[in-house]
Amino acid sequence: xxxxxxxxPFHCQRAVTLALAVGCSxxxxxxxxxxxxxxxxxxxxxxxxPKHHNKDNLKSEILQARAFLAELRRxxxxxxIVYIFGNHEFRxxxxxxxxxxxxxxxxxxxxxxxxxxxxxxxxxINNDTKENCFAYGKLIIGHFDLANKYSGYTAKNxxxxxxxxxxxxxxxRGGSSFRRLYDRDIAAYENFCLCNRNPEFVDHPNWxxxxxxxxxxxxxxxxxxxxxxxxxxxxxxxxxxxTIFNGLIYEN
Length: 252
Prior knowledge:
It is a single chain. 24% of the residues lie in helices and 29% in strands. By secondary structure, the protein is α/β, with parallel strands linked by helices. The strands form three sheets. It has a five-stranded mixed β-sheet with strand order 5-6-7-9-8, covered by helices on one side. Strands 1-2-3-4 form a four-stranded parallel β-sheet, with no helix packed on it.
């Protein structure tokens, strides 16, 4: 199961809850967190609305992310959990390198230590850049620094660049692209998001909620990816979130 782009504390809690409910039915062998699970809003270099400024924001964000990771481990005690760092996780090391380089090597200063990943048996993929990826057989799951305007365009361009099947976070939308090479077929996917789709920095962005499920043959590299869109229906108190898994409707 692949989840990405929660941007805690700006996550959509109801969409996250729905995705985890499907996960509890699925009982996945591996859960892959494909980047931007935390936002690191307070230490970003982008414009921040002063009315949202609070000196405790970063601490609160870290505590919320810790709670999410601990809950993930509680719900899936036997699953392997792999956390691929994205460009928002990279903000942490970038900030320390720029403003407090002397502290970088001290115990407890890495983001994975702050999030207590080892404590929850969560593997971290982090090479201290904005791009990281994880190989699952012949499929690459990554948070690459590319996001095109329309659904499927990023998947196509990454497939053209890398000539390998892949799943990309980062785009906040779903999409797919398929290509036949000389000796094989490849497939590329964009993995939706699980964050608030009405952020303060952009008006009505073209983002979709959802997640992906990878089915892989344990005796070969054959795989298939199912993309699960989460529909947001209605307004206000009547708003519901729905997705379908295994022929059943999941909603909250």
